[in-house]
């Protein structure tokens, strides 16, 4: 019997609703070609729902998805609602309740594209971002609101378990790739959590003699990311540093519209979530201008996770092929609409 995968689909807002159908069309074709089944469970969990019902998702939303095999997300966010509401009302609860403590973000200089920095001719790296603790924490508060003596306190949480497991994932990945791992730190300025991060990472590193570990201060790392992105293979970083670095790398490699992201529960106790790095792009939404590559590549990471590795490789080579032939959407300097680009990818599948 064919493998059957149940996938919760949250297209979300803005261009999420344009790039999601584009990716699903291609994945459906791949499932027919490769002989597996995809069952899509569409969820209208978006900003419209929030404006109507006062919540991004139902109270038991997490429970509804818990028997699924994966979650496929477009993007959420609209100018009418504060961004912390859309983020903390949907994505952050999913990441935390499903223990998706790894956020894996590949960056590659795709064929046919030029890096935004002169002299850079290859980029192929993975950012491993800690995804459930660190700087994005609920611990803290605000008092004396609006008064001159107002105070805001935001605590960063780093646990040995949390740092150990993200470091282990990154060392394993580096060992399978070129054996080089860079750890993002700021132990000169942030004097409690970052030396702790460094110690735990180095401790895990002692178990991986085949991997060369380099600790780099985040400010210098950002500059090196712009000037010498080819010098990285795997980068492990805290929640905030990893978030910023992955946007930086994807911008250097061409466009934020191509970058994918996997929120993984490596133990597979819960579904993992796959999404593009970009947001809902209200500035171009509804105009057919969105680049669907980030969503397609996220779909490839999802297929990989589900064990459909041949189909995953095929969609990547299909969009690479279209880009290599000089066809792309406007963000990459081309002239194709979302649909035209998707048609071109679709036609290459199963050929
Ligand atoms: P954004 O990624 O939506 O857009 C940044 C810029 O990149 C815009 O100029 C946009 O037109 C362009 N862009 C993004 N994706 C593109 C694509 N696929 N093709 C072509 N151009 C693309 O980030 P921004 O503007 O900071 O946020 C907009 C909304 O998205 C906000 O409400 C924000 O909270 C939300 N957001 C949601 C995320 C998620 O759902 N995971 C992630 C990031 C932002
Ligand atoms: Mg981000």
Automatic annotation (TrEMBL):
Belongs to the isocitrate and isopropylmalate dehydrogenases family. Keywords: Lyase, Manganese, Metal-binding, NAD, Oxidoreductase. Its EC number is 1.1.1.83. SUPFAM superfamilies: Isocitrate/Isopropylmalate dehydrogenase-like (SSF53659). Its cofactor is Mn(2+); Mg(2+). The lineage of its organism: Bacteria, Bacillati, Actinomycetota, Actinomycetes, Micrococcales. This is D-malate dehydrogenase (decarboxylating). Pfam families: Iso_dh. It comes from Leucobacter exalbidus. It catalyses: (R)-malate + NAD(+) = pyruvate + CO2 + NADH. GO terms for molecular function: D-malate dehydrogenase (decarboxylating) (NAD+) activity; lyase activity; magnesium ion binding; NAD binding. Residues 6-345 form the Isopropylmalate dehydrogenase-like domain. SMART domains: Iso_dh. It is an enzyme of class 1 (oxidoreductase). It comes from the Bacteria.
